[in-house]
Amino acid sequence: MLNLQQKQSLQQKLSPQQIQYIKLLQLPTLALEQRIKAELESNPLLEEGEEEDDLQLDNSDEPTDDGSSDLDDDLPSDDTQSSSDDEFDWDEFLNAPDDLYGYKAQVDHSAEEDDRESPMPALSSLAEGLREQVGLLDLDETEELVADQIIGSIDEDGYLRRPVESILDDVMFNYGVVLTEDDVERVLSRIQRLDPVGIAARDLRECLLIQLDVLGDEVDGRENAIDMLRDCYKPFTMKHFDAIKRKLNLDDFELKEAYDLVRSLDPKPGEGDFATQTNYITPDFTVERDNDDFRILLNGRNAPELRVSRHYRNMWNDLSAKKTKGDEKAKETKDFLKTRMESARWFINSIQQRRNTLLRVMEAIVEVQHDFFEHGEGHLKPMILKDIADIIHMDISTVSRVVNGKYVQTEYGVYELKHFFSEGITSDEGEEVSNKEVKALLERIIAKEDKTKPYSDQKLADLLAEEGFPIARRTVTKYREQLNVPVARLRKQIVLA
Fold first, then answer.
1. Which residues share a beta bridge with 154?
2. Helix%, strand%, coil% for the chain, nearest 5
3. Which CATH architecture has domain 424-491?
4. Where in the chain do CATH 1.10.10.60 domains reside?
5. β-pair partners for 350
6. Number of separate helices (H) and strands (E) present in the chain
7. For 3-26, b where at least 16 C-beta lie within 10 A, e where not — what string?
8. Which residue, 47, 61, 54, 51, is CA-closest to 18?
9. 229, 236 in Cβ contact below 8 A?
10. Is residue 75 classed as helix, strand or coil in its secondary structure?
11. Considering only CA atoms, which of 201, 212, 124, 211 is closest in space to residue 158?
12. Which pTM does this prediction carry?
């Protein structure tokens, strides 16, 4: 049986311009550069450059600043005044002020030319290095095919997690060569002993054993280390030292010698070296000391000035001056120009508002964390996204997009903006302290503990309480895990008397 119902609902929909603004807002500097290049390639009316009557933002697109935290207030308006096919309102683009929100966007172009002239270093990936080393081995043509398949299957951390059967199938499918698992294992064994030693291991145990195998017999503790990994691997991972000593009949000195040798090995040979290029952090902001205050600069290296092409503007004016009624080709050209002009306007508008929003957020962060920028680490205050959103009268989601993946250059180093956000903890004296300060104290306590009897999480909680920070054991556990510090059992070390 069919039912016909009428339903009324309220939905919030974002315009294409607002969606574009949101996407641009969350891009870091280098990603923004690529996005601008793509827009310049796709829209012939958009070009780089600045001139007296260049394309600017019109004031009708300013977000309202009435204290509301709704998302709509943070987004640019998509209200475009309709115009006839014969008249296009260029005043909407030209000669509008660029000091939106009460100040001019400060963009730093200071070292732009020097940076552009700096040559990039020649980079060679680890995979290429391995192939060069394979070329020096005495391999036949079939073995070289296998070696190439193995190297191409190595993960970014240097391990080979593809089954040997899959490599066999690839060689047979791509080259029609039938091999056995022993053929692959023989080539794999030789690759694993190339530089870095242990590359292409199937697991950590194999990786460590390969590195021990290539060491000379004269290395102290080598034989005991090999026996420990082969016969007592599980007790080794759990740091059950008494069980290892009983199994291998070792004294404390021999066990420590073997254990320290294993600890000196590389658990992930080649990790991070498989990328063909190095990722550099490009700060989005620079905070400089300016007498008793701070000056905030937005990195403008990858955000060039944009404008609508004068050539296409003249083309529009020429078409508008002519009588083109009934001329379909002229109408299509005018429609194309009008659409691209609106697209260029939206994009330039969004870029400008992105700059201003980023500066507003950074100014608010500096305002709250003034002591940090004045004195450095150890003076970080508790701060959450809502604190910044309340200061700049924007939505929390807007602040989150600005903070995500952005960096600031300070006189104390380069920091991710997320570094300045943390929850607060109240000390015994009633002072609110950032949980980052508590984590730093926790690290110092663990660094000074007796390595033969590491502190439990409850003991760490008790010690923090003695320092004036009464927090629960589960909170200590959470902080310890965030610091990548293992549990007490795994922090245990062998210390000779």
1. 160
2. 50, 10, 40
3. Orthogonal Bundle (1.10)
4. 424-491
5. none
6. 22, 9
7. eeeeeeeeeeeeeebbebbbebbb
8. 61
9. yes
10. coil
11. 201
12. 0.56
Question: What is the identity of the amino acid at 39?
Answer: E
Report which residue type is found at 54. Answer: D
Give how far Cα 371 sits from Cα of 82, 88, 252, 375, Å.
50, 52, 50, 6
Side chain identity at 347, as an amino acid letter? Answer: F
Distance in angstroms (rounded) separating the CA atoms of residues 440 and 373: 18
Q: Which residue has the tokens 């081995």?
A: 137
Q: Please report, in tens digits, the pLDDT of each residue of the chain (497 residues total).
A: 566 777 776 665 667 777 888 888 888 888 888 888 888 888 888 888 765 444 443 434 444 444 344 444 555 554 444 444 445 454 444 444 444 333 334 555 554 444 444 444 443 578 888 999 998 888 999 999 999 999 989 988 889 999 999 998 888 888 888 889 999 999 999 999 999 999 999 999 999 999 999 998 889 999 999 999 999 999 999 889 999 999 999 999 999 999 999 999 999 887 755 544 445 778 989 999 888 789 999 887 656 688 888 888 888 788 777 766 667 787 888 888 888 888 888 888 888 889 899 999 999 999 999 988 988 877 888 888 999 999 999 999 899 989 988 999 999 899 999 889 887 777 666 667 778 888 888 999 999 998 888 999 999 999 998 888 888 899 899 999 989 999 988 888 877 65
